[in-house]
Amino acid sequence: MPHAKSLRAIGQYLETLPIQAFEIEKTGNDYVVRTASLSPTAQWIFKESPNEVSDSPTRTKKPSSNDRSMRYETLDIVRLDAQGRKKRRKHTFSQTRGAKTLSQLLRTVGEHLDRIEVSAFTVSWSTDSVSVDYQRAEGGREREDFTLKQVRELGLHMQLHRSGREA
Fold first, then answer.
1. Which tops the pLDDT comparison, 27 or 98?
2. pLDDT value at position 35?
3. What are the residues whose beta carbons fall under 8 Å from the beta carbon of 8, sequence distance 6 or more?
């Protein structure tokens, strides 16, 4: 599954939580999300989501009761993506093209990673910046830093590029 699709699905879930900063690490086929910026209520939601078990991501197994990480396996991503598609169908075109949401911005980062063909990466997200540390398929490690404005601009550029290919 493309990184863009996976990161958008994870972003849709994270939008339900008031998270200011987090880290997403791609390990093998799984994605691990870590955060330290949770209110007590959000931490409870993050760890003990009242969603149906089939719809909630697999939590990483850690002995600490203060666990602030979540592992998304392939089936989790597929379920989250299906839920997101269902929600997006309910919105009008203008609603989905409006302000950039976290899921749309993560999709942009994922498209960038797909385009440069990375095999592993870590996305560090804060209130005003995004850092991406990645390993290319051929083995070289690199890091890129973006402001949120730059991620939005990259998304617009990619959107125009996709539109041009479809024409």
1. 27
2. 87
3. 81, 84, 103, 104, 106, 107, 110
d(CA 164, CA 167): 5
> Residues 114, 4: contact at Cβ < 8 Å?
yes
Length of the chain: 167
DSSP 60: P
Look-up of token digits 């999300």: 33
**pLDDT computed for residue 87 by the predictor:** 77
Q: How many domains does the chain have?
A: 1
149-167 residues labelled b (16+ CB within 10 A) or e (exposed): eebbebbeebeeeeeeeee
User: Residue 40 belongs to what domain range?
Assistant: 3-166
Q: What is the pLDDT of residue 25?
A: 97
Alpha-carbon span 110 to 102, nearest angstrom: 12
Is the four-CA dihedral 97, 35, 136, 80 of positive or negative sign? Answer: negative
pLDDT tens sequence across 29-47: 899 999 876 666 666 666 6
